Amino acid sequence: MSVTGWWDIGYNFLVGEDGNVYEGRGWNNMGAHVRGHNRNSIGIAIIGNFGSRKPNYAALYAATQLIRCGVLTQVSDHQRCTFLRDV
Prior knowledge:
This protein has one helix spanning 57-73; strands at 13-15, 21-23, 44-46. The chain is of the alpha+beta class. A 3-stranded mixed β-sheet has the order 2-1-3, with helices on one face.
């Protein structure tokens, strides 16, 4: 963190292949995950290296449930879902 000047995890949530969701900045704090698009977005990262394989079922299911929760409780009508790989 001292090299980049970041003060914490930039993503709002992290998802593990153990099926757990880990809170980074949470729903109510602006993330620092995509330059120029942090103000009106939620950053979710799946932990791991997926250059040669996809995340496992547990991670994908947990991410889906997290997104569903956000859509039902946190996201306004003018927001949309965009998925980025290796931003």
